[in-house]
Specification:
The chain is an alpha+beta fold. Helix content is 34%, strand content 25%. It is built from 13 helices and 21 strands. The strands form 5 sheets. It has an 8-stranded antiparallel sheet, with helices on one face. The chain has a 5-stranded antiparallel sheet with strand order 7-10-16-17-18, with helices on one face. Strand 5 and strand 6 form a beta hairpin. Helix 1 packs across helix 9, helix 4 packs parallel to helix 6 and helix 7 crosses helix 8. The N and C termini lie far apart (44 Å). The mean pLDDT is 95. It binds zinc ion (2 copies). One zinc ion binds next to strand 18.
Length: 408
Amino acid sequence: MKINEDKIDKLAHLAVKRGVGLQRGQNLLITAPIESLPLVRKIAEHAYKEGAHIVTPLFNDSDITLSRFRYAPDESFDNSTDWLFKGMGEAFDTNTARMAIAGDDPMLLSEMNPDKVSRANKAMAKAYKPARERITEFKINWNIVSWPGKAWAKRVFPELDTDEAVVKLADAIFDASRASVDDPVKAWDDHNEKLRIKTNWLNQQNFAALQYNGPNTNLRVGLADDHEWMGGASKAQNGIICNPNIPSEEVFTTPHAYKVEGTVVSTKPLSYQGTLIENIKVKFEKGKIVEASASKGEEVLQKVLKSDEGASRIGEVALVPHSSPISQSGIVFFNTLFDENASSHIALGQCYSKCFKSDFSKEEISKKGGNSSMIHIDWMIGSNEIDVDGIDHNENSVPVFRKGEWAN
Ligand code: ZN
Ligand code: ZN
């Protein structure tokens, strides 16, 4: 069994044309697992055909990562490749587009020493700042697509042998990415239009808050002042329109970091840098998580919440109908890029400064309620049992979701 080569080519073409929206004369930086080489080669081919100047792939390898955790000296884990991320920041400042290929084993580090993992993550989050800031500020066009890595495929389909699991995950990725149809570019133009209708409606409503009700969930999420809903295609600060995530089914905005109240539970497992965190339950007071538990991975969750001051507040709220193709596939991908698009979600940590009516400074964004943190972790709170109401500035409520679907 082999991965369908025609679909690899279609996904690569889609990623270049509508994903990153590459323009003639741009450079393209691609970070990718070495296993995804067939896709990266196709992406480079399409990028050069679109007029890319230089395509630079940076590959990583799971076995080399594991060697570090097994054999590197203890001091290694407080270090990161600062020089590399500074270079990325510089590349983005000079209009280099960014593409990332996801495909690693979501549980890669689960057997490694949790203290080393958390120190390495922290050092990495700190060093990554120059690159992350330019991405969250949406300075340049960027995109993430996925490749069915062997270990990832075995996590998703443990009952199959490796080759079959890879092919099955490949098909699930192509379908979820709308890359299996005759004309994926047209399919994305239609999809983007549908998302735009929803974001326009939400922006007209200009709700003060969203109220979530469902089993074990009674949550009021205040929205940031001058927030703006976004989804699908959007324009980066360099003027280029791109679809950052493929797939993407969400519309999302910035909540108010100090106006979240109540309790909420996760509805799908969260795969966070090698650990699976399940059945998360948290309580918010004045925007801050004051109680948190999980049936699995609680130790990692507690560490994450203590990463910095903003890690126990939320920076994103996103609506995804339960009927989304990813949700309907019934597959748990153990990968946020897919699983967040199966379900409404919130994210701990950093807000998207782009989700505001104008380009505000960092200080203005934080005054308006935008959260800041070195983490941004989405977790799923939606299901077919959740109702969401929009609350306007006079405390009137308007149905937004009923039983996990758009109410209008
Ligand atoms: Zn999201
Ligand atoms: Zn997010």
